[in-house]
Specification:
The chain contains seven helices and no strands. It is mostly helical. It has three domains: about 100 residues, no CATH class; about 50 residues, no CATH class; about 60 residues. The chain starts with 7 loop residues before the first helix and ends with a helix. Helix content is about 65%, strand content about 0%. Bound molecules: zinc ion (ZN). The site of zinc ion has 4 residues, from helix 4.
């Protein structure tokens, strides 16, 4: 996207080292607050849990969710790991990368991006997509992948393509500048010739006048 036409959203992503892929402490906090109005009625009224039990289930679950998310999601988008001062740290569950569980979550979320974000919404709890009918199986989305390999490979290919594009732009600009310089050279050459000719004419006229006089 040309830098002059950046949307508010893309500008805010530029200022985020994780480009919106991570759960920072602020995001985790907001999520917890957002869930409180439904949490207590469901847990305490419907499920009849005590306040302590509710809190003891809710907060560790939120932390586990953030840990799984932060280990999987920024990493699969080729972005850096989250440090403890930024959010739930990625290193706690990094040993799970490459496991059957993480590979399953990884491919499920690949599908989310391949279908343009219109399915497989849940990164850490794919069961929700199965319950809500928003799950897209791999056999549907995999053939739509234009480039072979993983999302990471696709991202790298995109970056390489962007670099080639930038290089092309740069060479077009260099060509333009070279052409302009050449035309300036030619113009100044033509001006010099014209000046020379004019000088000759003036001198010739002066000479002729002198002869006439
Ligand atoms: Zn993603």
């Amino acid at each position: 996207m040309p830098s002059g036409k950046k949307t508010k959203a893309s500008k805010s992503l530029d200022s985020d080292p994780f480009r919106g892929t991570a759960f920072t402490w602020a995001v985790s906090g907001m999520m917890c607050v957002q869930m409180l109005p439904t949490l207590f009625p469901i847990y305490m009224r419907i499920l009849q849990f005590s306040f302590l039990k509710t809190v003891a289930i809710f907060f560790p679950s939120m932390l586990l969710h953030a840990l799984i998310w932060n280990t999987l999601h920024p990493h699969m988008h080729g972005l850096p790991d989250i440090k403890i001062f930024q959010g739930a740290p990625s290193r706690v569950l990094a040993w799970l990368r490459g496991s059957a569980f993480f590979n399953y979550l990884y491919q499920n979320h690949e599908g989310h991006h391949v279908v343009g974000g219109r399915g497989n919404y849940n990164v850490c709890c794919p069961l929700t997509d199965h319950l809500l009918g928003t799950y897209v199986p791999q056999k549907i989305w995999r053939p739509k992948v234009k480039l072979p390999g993983t999302l990471l490979a696709k991202r790298k290919a995109d970056e390489a393509a962007a670099e080639v594009e930038l290089e092309n732009h740069a060479s077009v600009i260099i060509d333009d500048v070279t052409t302009s310089l050449e035309s300036i050279d030619q113009s100044s050459g033509a001006v010099e010739i014209k000046l020379d000719n004019a000088e000759h004419t003036v001198l010739k006229t002066v000479d002729e006048n002198r002869v006439t006089v």
